[in-house]
């Protein structure tokens, strides 16, 4: 008797996808955090539909590198920072980890800032919203089982629909939007370069790359899961771009049309929407910010904690107890408390924190992407999954693009 | 911070490798420890104190010895890497290596089997801490002269030692051996051939419980994972694999050579290895089965095609099949020929493609005209059929719905491949209820 093709296989596949699905979508969507929304709003408000193509490129870059991160995690069973330490040495590993901690702390503060600003729109003080958010995410991630947390994350990501609805309510010029997506044009000035870099930096966020890899390791996903995980990552990354698109379009159709060219925080876009697209659009936008902030604020300390324990080589998994993985939990708590505390300082300039964190993200992206490139081509680490010439040239092209943006940024910064 | 290493780690390791005390606790060794991480990039001097080049890496040779000796140096001279035999080292200090002669034969470095590069393969890599039962990262390696050669004596896994390396200058090179594992109690898993064999680790690993080993194996990936498995005694490795989940096991088997995989699968419980084989793709499975001993292979092939929780696992493959174009006489003859085997209460009729048409009772055949075709007897009630992957519970339901004495099992193309008789089902159910309460994952 030869082997039989079991007809029941297909059903199992779908169930398996549902089990694996999540990390990619969560990692992707949490790139649409308040910092991201602010950046996309600014992109639309200042330049209308014209720079939409930078979002298209950022999304493609996100898909490609999230996919690579997932692959590296599954094949090597090691997180990104641990691999950098192994391949590039103690200093490179520590530098990456330190940079990630700072950038993540900055971004985490931006998430709390988003919650604070959006809460104020509904008349709730940030001294109430921020602590509640801190406790909520800690409880969600640390106390519940991760499966449950994941379900809550999914519900949270549903709020992103609100951006799509707000987008339609603003009656954008679709013809111009598609033209902007596929016909690149760009004024060569400081603010355009700035916003393009920020767009790349906020979409292709370093912590998202570190997260997807650590998650695959923590969940012990195997090569058998890889196809499903990759599908998940692609869907998540694509959704990130789609939602970003609607945010840009909303702001282009309203703020840009009304000659409101600057956005200073995430909630301002919502406020400005009110007279133009109605109260409902404003509320939807604000709810979207809160949901996005909660999602990203849950993932950020987690990603940081993963990276730190990865550097030390001490085991870390969400199912470990405090005594088993103290550093993991200490990092989680420190990031959350510090970021929440910063926001509570009366009179602090949230916008400075927000912008500098995104600039740091973009700069940090360069070495991390370069390390990932090196790991991807390493046959010793990746075996049969090592990247071929074509893949490497695509990675190389994206890295070059990020480098050009960062260099142009520096050039305008130094130019009087 | 990283988990505090077990205080008694060295004594445990010492007991396991049959020595009274670990070498690192000897005062003479402890006082002459040199940090490998600190040594990399430091000058290599000739006997007159003149710098020849900078140290890139140290090569160690693995053999039966517990503490592997340094067999060579890779140094960088004017941007070219060269190899110097380890026998030429005259003195090792924390910030330089002094050679015993002024005349240096520089050789091209070629990695030989059984050797590994301490910086390139071990430092900052994952190793298995056998006593602590975990995968850790190497923060530093300590070298010391011992038994006439310079040897690797200890592995530092503490985070503090890792941080120490970030400091500038000589601070980074000062050994901080507070939390050091004896080399004998770790399994370092990378070198050119994949495995670092030390008799000590092998002995220590053999003391582990299979379930703990399975956890260690799951924590590793790729070459390291395969290396650890190959390092183990095959029987122990087979026990460990039995403890693993299907998906994990599939991943492990994919990483092993067919020879190693076949060897392990033959040592596993047949149903466990059948389950593992079932998850592999056809080509891979065949390549493994082809190497196995014939009887085991055919037994496994048989088991692979069925699943004990499904209809295919409990059916009998004994079927009397006739073609719809056959005559009634042919069918009766078939029954007579098989009267010795189980209870031939009828024949199964198929069309030219082998697809199931009907099950005809012996009584019907006897009553019919001998020369007529079987096709003429096909009529309601048609037999109940289930696919091979139907769950046993569903088979039971089919039985109780139809009140028949048997059910026909078909494959995905509706071809009959077996039959489940009521008594087969009774056997299966009683077996299931016996095993049910105990079979919560842990196997004896």
Protein architecture, described:
- The complex is a heterodimer of chains A (416) and B (444).
- Chain A is an all-alpha fold and 416 residues long.
- Chain A has a single domain (22-254, 261-414), classed as Amino acid/polyamine transporter I, CATH 1.20.1740.
- Chain A is 79% helix and 0% strand.
- Chain A is built from 19 helices and no strands.
- Chain A has helices spanning 9-20, 23-29, 34-47, 52-76, 80-88, 90-121, 126-143, 146-157, 161-169, 174-182, 190-203, 206-218, 226-256, 266-277, 279-312, 326-344, 350-376, 379-382, 389-414.
- In chain A, helix 4 (52-76) packs across helix 10 (174-182), helix 4 (52-76) packs parallel to helix 11 and helix 4 (52-76) runs parallel beside helix 12.
- Residues 1-15 of chain A have low confidence and may be disordered.
- By secondary structure, chain B is of the alpha+beta class.
- Chain B folds into three domains: 17-186, SH3 type barrels (Roll); 208-305, MgtE N-terminal domain-like (MgtE N-terminal fold, Alpha Horseshoe), CATH 1.25.60; 312-432, CBS-domain (Roll).
- In chain B, 36% of the residues lie in helices and 22% in strands.
- Chain B contains 19 helices and 20 strands.
- In chain B, the strands form five sheets. In chain B, strands 2, 3, 4, 5, 6, 7 and 8 form a seven-stranded mixed β-sheet that branches.
- Chain B is rod-shaped and about 110 Å long.
- The relative contact order of chain B is 0.08.
- The interface between A and B is large, with 35 and 46 residues.
Brief digest:
The complex is a heterodimer of chains A (416) and B (444). In chain A, 55% of the residues are buried.
- Number of helical segments with 4 or more residues of chain B: 19
Structural class assignment of chain A: mainly alpha
Series of secondary-structure elements of chain A, N-terminal to C-terminal: HHHHHHHHHHHHHHHHHHH
How many separate domains of chain B? 3
Strand content of chain B: 15-25%
The CATH architecture of chain A can be given as Up-down Bundle
The chain-level structural class of chain B is alpha+beta
What amount of the residues of chain A lies in strands? under 5%
Shape of chain B from CA axes?
rod-shaped
**At the fourth CATH level, what is the homologous superfamily of the largest domain in chain B?**
PRC-barrel domain
> What is the CATH topology assignment of chain A?
Amino acid/polyamine transporter I
**Discrete helix count of chain A:** 19
- Name the CATH homologous superfamily of chain A: Amino acid/polyamine transporter I
Report, as a whole number of angstroms, the end-to-end distance of chain B.
Answer: 37 Å
The count of DSSP E runs of length 2 or more, i.e. the number of strands of chain A, is 0
Q: Please give the CATH class of chain A.
A: Mainly Alpha
**Could you tell me the number of beta strands of chain B?**
20
Largest sheet of chain A: none
Helical residue percent band of chain A: over 70%
Tell me the Rg of chain A in angstroms. Answer: 21 Å
